[in-house]
Every structure is written in C-alpha cells, then in structure tokens.
Amino acid sequence: MEITDLEVIPLSWSLPEGEGMGDSRGFGRTRATSLVRLETDDGTVGWGEAFAPGSVVEATVDELFRDRVLGMDPFDVESLADRSYTDPYHFGGSVFVQSALSGIDVACWDVIGKTVGRPVHRLLGGEECHTLTPYASTMYFTAEEQPIAEPIERAVAEGFTAAKIKIGSGFEADVERVRTARKLLGEDAALMVDMNGNYRPRQAIKTARAIEEYDVAWIEEPVPPENESGYREVKNRIDTPIAAGEAHYGRFAFKRLVDDRLVDVVQPNLGRCGGLSEARLIADMATTENVAVRPHVWNSAVGVAAAVQFAASVSPYPHTRNVPEPMMLEFDRSENPLRSEILETPFDPTGGTLDVPQEPGLGISVDESAVERYRDD
Ligand SMILES: [Mg+2]
User: Fold this and answer.
1) How far apart, in whole angstroms, are the C-alpha atoms of residue 60 and residue 55?
2) Which one of 38, 113, 184, 219 is at 20 to 30 Å from 154 when CA atoms are compared?
3) How far is the CA of 351 from the centre of ligand 1 (A)?
4) Using alpha carbons only, what angle is made at residue 350 by residues 349 and 351, rounded to the nearest 5 degrees?
5) What integer is the mean pLDDT of 318-347?
6) 296 annotated active-site
C-alpha cells in the first residue's frame, strides 16, 4: 500500500465585526486551521488536521514532508515522527513542524484503521471504549461585554456535567467568574479554569488560593508556557492541580513537564503535538509517572475526532480504580462551523456523554462540500 496523494486544505471562518471572543490575552474573530487529506493506491482516503494556518502548513509540508510521504506505506507512520526530529534536526520540536506532522500522522492512522477495520483507539492499544465525559469549554471573554452567567446556564441546560471557564484578567474578576460558575453548575460538576498563561506566578497563586473554596479540578496555564520556573513556583505553593500542553509541541517538551513535575495534567492537542503517534508516547510517559492526560481540543471536527480516539485509548493506570476519574474531553461551545458543519454526522456532546465512534479509522465521514464552503486558498 502506498500514499499517492497528499493535499493540504486551509480552512477559515470569521465571526462578524465586533463579535470577537477569546481569553485573558485578548480577542479574535477568525478561526483558521488546515485539513490534511491523504489518498492511497487502493483508493482509501484518510483525514487529519494540522491545527495551524494553511499558508504555513502548506509551506512546511512542501519543504519537509511531501517527498517522503508520497510513495510511503501509511503503516510506516511512526517513522515520520522520528524523522521530524532528525531530517533536518534543527527544526524538530517547532510548532509548525509538529503541526504539519500531526495532520499527516492522524490521516495515516485513519487509513490504517480503515484498512484493518478497527477504530483508532483500539489500534493504539486501548480497551473497547464507547463514551467519554465531555466538558463545556465556555465563559469566554468577549469584545462586547456579555452577562457572565449566560454561557454556564446554557451548558447546564445542555446537560454538561463539567465545564472550563476563562479567567486570568484580574483577581476580583477571577473570583467573581469562578463563584458564578460554581453556583450555576452545582456542587457535583467538575469545574476547571484557564488563565491562558496571562499571569506572573504571584498573581496566579493569589487567585488560586482565593478560588480553592470552589473546588476547582485544575488550573490551566497559570503562567506562560515557556516559564518553567514559574510553573514550579506555582505548583509548590498551591493545592489545586495544574494543567498545560496546548502550547507544548512534541515529546521532548512534554517530557520536561512530566519529569520536572511541572503539571498534574498534560494536555496534548492532536493537531499540534505531533499527532497520534507522538500523543501515544506522551501518554505513556505521563501515565508511567502517574500524571493525568486530558487532550486539549479547540480544533475542527477532524481534530475533535482524533482527540476522541486518542482519549478513548488512554489507560487510567496506575491511578487507582477505587477513586475513578472520568476521561474528560474538552468540547468548545463557541460558534465554529469548522467544528459543527464539516462532518456528515457531527459530534453531539450534550446530555453528559460523548459517543466514541466505533467505525474503522477516526470513525467519521467528512462532508467534502461543507469543507469547500470554508476553504480559504
Ligand atoms: Mg487553554
């Protein structure tokens, strides 16, 4: 079997003028990403997502990957991750190399699954898994101030039992947002907060201590992703678990997070961490050291599908089965047709569970006419 076609499909979509939304660092209107479509000599099509703008993914694929992927057997997928660090070795862990690799790698796994008739989570060694627990990623900062309660009320009405909210814009606002979310979600729901690396350690610690009474499951990116000493400082001085990974790329960056005990939860994004091959290595490193794995997902529906299959494959071992922790999967609740419109059957996270597709490969059917609507090249 060999790969005969490799296409990068840039996608983008923008909110109307004045309706920017985002995090403590600022607002944006445009969602841009890239799909990777592979085809093999027997006509099998595989899909992946490189979670980066199309122009850089196209250039990176052309420069580093196209020649080696065309003619390759997709079953040799794991050799691509190794070679991303060696050929040439200067670019290995960079975000755009790992993003381009992610798209190709996930598309290869989709082809492999379709060829052997198994969903990807079983190929990665996971037990049979039918559902995950989705958490609503919500309460974004908005360009025009909106009532903070409304998105949480909506998540509760939709049946979510877990949610992650944006904080990090100042101490008073942090406490008010967390207090509001906890009140509306109820005592039993899991509540996570995301500072998007907008604080110095001292600021993050002050907020972390003040929101401890609201039983926060994790604080995401309290300080900038590069600030390893800052992570160490925060982690040593608060009791709430810390999570990071959406701005870490490749196995070596995650190894530092795990080895140096900088976080309690690693969050690889399947469109940026290097793909399923690299994510499996990351999960093996993390679970070996009893660090939790919860993928970051802010992708198109193809990236969501990759994250679902990956999350379904991760073993809870060695965490004790007497204190069960559900495998939670981030589900962005902001408007984004790249997530909600490009599959024949979109994922439905409402009602408290998310079905894991059992069909071969990623288990999705991409609606190519919908993809064309958002194509941006
Ligand atoms: Mg985040």
Assistant:
1) 9
2) 219
3) 23
4) 125
5) 90
6) yes
Query: What letters, b where the CB count within 10 A reaches 16 and e where it falls short, cover 152-180?
Result: beebbebebbbbbbbbbbeeeebbebbeb
CA 6 / ligand 1 centre spacing (Å): 31
Which listed residue (121, 248, 296, 319) is catalytic?
296
Task: Give the Cβ contact number of residue 323 at 10 Å.
Answer: 7
Mapping DSSP to helix (H, G, I), strand (E, B) and coil, where does residue 375 land?
A: strand
pTM over 0.85: yes
Range list for CATH 3.20.20.120 in the chain: 121-368
For residue 269, what are its two tokens? 């994004």
Question: Is the CA virtual torsion 344, 347, 350, 353 positive or negative?
Answer: positive
Beta-strand ranges (E) seen in the chain are 3-14, 21-23, 26-28, 30-40, 45-50, 131-138, 141-142, 162-166, 190-194, 216-220, 242-244, 265-266, 292-293, 328-332, 354-355
Peptide bond into 349 cis (omega under 30): no
How remote is the CA of residue 194 from the centroid of ligand 1, in Å?
A: 6
Structure tokens at 226: 């590069």
> How many Cβ atoms from other residues are within 10 Å of residue 186's Cβ?
10
pLDDT for res 324: 73
pLDDT surpassing 70 at residue 320: no
The fold of the 3-117 domain, in CATH, is Enolase-like; domain 1 (3.30.390)
Q: What is 121-368's CATH topology?
A: TIM Barrel (3.20.20)
Helix (H, G, I), strand (E, B) or coil at 40: strand
C-alpha 212 to ligand 1 mean position (Å): 19
